[in-house]
Amino acid sequence: MFRISNHYVSKIVFVLLFVEILILLGAAYAGAAMRFLDIGAPLTTDQFDHFLASAVAFAVAVSFSMSAMGMYQLDFDEGLRHPFFMKLMPAFLMGFLILTLVFYVAPDLYFGRGILLLGFGLAAAGIFIARIIFFKTSELRLMQSRILFLGNGALAKECSELAVNKNSYHRYKVVGFIPVGSDDMCVPAADVLKVREGDSLVKLATQYGAQEIVVSVQNRRGSFPIKELLDCKLQGVKVTDAATFFERETCQIRVDSLQPSWLVFGGGFDQSFIRIFMKRGFDLICSTLIMAVTFPIMLGAALAVWLEDRNPVFYSQERVGKDGKIFRVHKFRSMRADAEKGGTPQWAAQNDPRVTRVGNFMRKTRIDELPQILNVFKGDMSFVGPRPERAYFVQQLIEVVPYYNVRHSIKPGITGWAQVRYGYGSSAEDALQKLQYDLYYVKNNSLFLDVLILINTLKVVLFRSGR
């Protein structure tokens, strides 16, 4: 893993994306060359140079479509099975539609249907071959990282299970556990390394070929080997604490084992003027474009809601925003008009019986959220951020969920990291899981992460897996 604008990005996925962009560029050029040879007029050097912008548009459109289809959320156990083809063809269709729009806006980039068809055919073959090589290479031990855990308690067990069971992006080989402190034994005794007198962490890491040591000790009082960990770092062995390991591997911030000092002295939490200015500009541009594109859809949704039960089309509700400020959020009504006739707020559930038939479709496709664009223009919300919650639930959650108020340090959003990674919340436990994603976003928010969330939101809409 490495970081782009504070967000953890898999090196494997980055390399795959880079290789496939090169394949797409090459497919566009090869398609042009084959098309011109077919008509007996080879492509000149000037024509090749002029074709560069068109090839880049082709590569960007197709790679964006593949991202929106979730083709870079890799599953090594799945490999190149059926879902790969089920996603590749729709991705190419989406890429074709995007290119059609691009050619309409910038006709100089248009390079003909023949070249386009050849380019898509060559790209499909190239991507398929690249993924075969990629997944076969991923099975080699060279792609594994050998990892050593300092600790043998509950935290060490949880970290090791995450490293072993995770089947995407990165593969780990757990070489063992080193007992430290007074934590209860929670890992298999056979996996605990036998440390002889005089053995240092550097020696053990070298002996077992460990490239990384994860400090997973809950009780660090007493004989905590801080000097030996420094020696390991100086010798080129990566040293990571459990909180950072969880953040890196799950894109969450785990609150159950979190030390407040980690939040205080760690990186992130960018609230600078430049970041606020860029985010506001991003909000206004995205909101304007999406409102222009979806305005006919909103008119249709309003008509469908009214025709279903002749009750109000819009639904307004008080929510908690930045710094605890109360504001009214606007949505298309997706529940019955008497959804809370008892007067007591209720959690929304995955298959909530109060949801109407039209409302169920709107929730799956996120259409019910579109009126919140008005909240974005007003400045109460951002386009991307933690979802705003009702004050009734916030008061309850603050008492039982640690650090819950941290999510109110930035503006809430129409879509967010928790929404594309987790389902509807109907309990305090669900709220905790979503908070851990929200904390990750609050800590690492950037323009880059906002774009990734929008791409993931598009995937949620396309597959009707609304959250």
UniProtKB/TrEMBL annotation:
Record's keyword terms, sorted: Membrane, Transferase, Transmembrane, Transmembrane helix
Signal peptide: none
Example GO molecular function: undecaprenyl-phosphate glucose phosphotransferase activity
Transmembrane region(s): 12-31, 51-72, 84-104, 110-134, 284-307
Ranges where the Bacterial sugar transferase domain occurs: 279-462
Biological process per Gene Ontology, one example term: colanic acid biosynthetic process
Membrane-topology descriptor: Multi-pass membrane protein
GO CC aspect terms: membrane
Pfam families with a match to the protein in the record: Bac_transf (PF02397)
Domain of life, source organism: Bacteria
Location(s), subcellular: Membrane
Similarity section: Belongs to the bacterial sugar transferase family.
Record-linked NCBIfam families: EPS_sugtrans, EpsB_2
Official protein name in the record: Sugar transferase (PEP-CTERM system associated)
Source species of the chain: Massilia aurea
